[in-house]
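Thread title: Can someone regenerate the structure for this chain?

I was given the following input by a collaborator and told the matching structure tokens would be attached. They weren't. Posting the sequence so someone can regenerate them.
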Amino acid sequence: MAHSVWRQTCLVICCLCEALATLSSRQQQQANERERRTFHTENPDWTFNHLVVDSRNGNLYLGAVNWIYKLSPGLQLEASHQTGPEDDNRKCYPPRIVQPCSEPLALTNNVNKLLLVDYRQDRLLACGSLFQGICKLLRLDDLFKLGEPSHRKEHYLSGLNHSGSVVGVIVSHSDGQAADRLFVATAVGGEPEYFPTISSRQLARDSEAEGMFAYVFHDEFVASMIKVPSDTFTVVPDFDIHYVYGFASGAFVYFLTLQPEMGGSGSGGVGLGPGVERIYASKLVRLCKDDPAFNSYVEVPLGCARGGAEYRLLQAAHLAPAGAELARALGVGQDEHVLYAIFSQGRKRFTRNRIQGSALCAFPLRQINARIKDRLQSCYRGEGTLDLAWLKVKDIPCSSALLTIDDNFCGLDMNAPLGVSEMVLGVPLFSEELDQMTSVIAYVYKNHSLAFVGTQSGQLKKIRVDDPSHGALQYETVQAVGRGPILRDMAFSPDHHFLYVMSETQLTRVPVEVCSQYASCSSCLGSGDPHCGWCVLHNTCSRKEACQRSSELGRFTSDIKHCVRLSVHPSNISVSQYNVKLLVEAHNVPDLSAGVQCSFGDLAEVDGLVDGNRIKCSSPAEREVSRIVVSRGVPLTRVPNLAPRCHDLFFWFTTAISVP
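Best answer:
Regenerated them for you:
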């Protein structure tokens, strides 16, 4: 009884040009896996808190409980500095290192609350929770302690012992002569008499200088700070402002906050004790860089909505250029800043339901500044009140004044500080109902705006956000850490080839792209990853700069319509047929005039005749065809496993051979 089976063979078309050997797709993928690195905490109690990357050399600085680490770009430990534990008590003010304390002392961990690189002075600013929040200034090279100011009240930032309570921004003077300033915003933990919630400090060049962290301006009536009034705690006993993110742009410094609402039913009024599920609002704070009296302080509420759901609780944020595609959709310039923000659903921060929907939204900074300008103009026309309930418990009417308010107006000693009542709504880009988003970072690659989002489960979502009207494209998801959530601090390597993400116990270097995971042109260009294109001559998916001679016509494509297409006639032949004339039509290929070779697995290689995009060649002769043994309809010969040879171009085309 005859059996009819089909044996697969491969036809390979190779350009006979000078070439270099290339890695196979599997080897490339393994290389990318080797590029992924991890660094784990030495002790589960020494959890990671903050991360910063030196933009000049790619070195990393990692703030943890009781330790500061310096790591190489490949996450090799280069230096460490121990910061705790120490005997302490939060009730000791000033701290016991300044004067004796009658409170009982206990060995206390030092939580890293602020970690910043001071580029002008080549030092690291690391502030902890011990001793009312004092800071260390460490040398970048080896983490040697340069200074630890602790004897003045300006040296104490906040005694809170959780890491997400302080945000800082270093601002340089435009003339480059004066010392830098540190804008610092912090939760005060019910101790407003000790700690301002937001302030501007001097960063002296000398790390041991007497004036380190002194307020930029201070006299009997005015200082470069704002404190939460004691009256506010009468209304909301556990009131505090939780700072999420800070940045500088143009003439201003901005902070993003989460804070309890002061008025309205169920919003946290008199009679509600600590820990109650209060109603919270997300607000942006703006200050002029060169405003020592803080007359420019303005607050504006932010929020987002998508599909009928309201997202009001700010979780994380990041500022990045818009990029050409997103800028066109938002109606702004491609170099203008866009604020990416993660919000969770609802308005209660301490919700009992752990699973909350979350949304990624975009705010053109121009839109926020325009809303603030409108509010300033209306207030200086005498319209409305200052509308800043936590700072001015009583309504204070705006005062009229004849003056011009331009885009860089920095306030007067009237109508300040000021609140905006009308919310600025962001443009919804992406939402997630099951795995809450916890962190975000973004950048522009060849006009495409890309957001990288961390989640509660430790996943990293790669999202293309070019056109909100058509929806964002989540083009890849990777498990970045073993156990989540991913913390707010994420950072790119200086060349943007890697992204550093962390949980409390693991820091991971993740490749921004792994193009080599896509084995075919269609899967490569259909992935949605704008980093990836098809390197035609090497039959691999890669970045354009990784593809040899990619600038030449037909050698690299980013358009799925331009994937190489081959067809062969006839499409199948019997094994009893030899020297069959084959016609191969090749589309979207480079110039083939240098010659091609038809390779039939490990059976034979023959020269092909090129006529435009057509290639003529003959199937193997009888003496070149191996004997095929058939048993129960299953071919026993193995299908040839072809590896790339030293040719510039190879394609696989499968034809079937009928076995009678």
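The domain at 5-22+517-659 is CATH 2.60.40.10 (Immunoglobulin-like).
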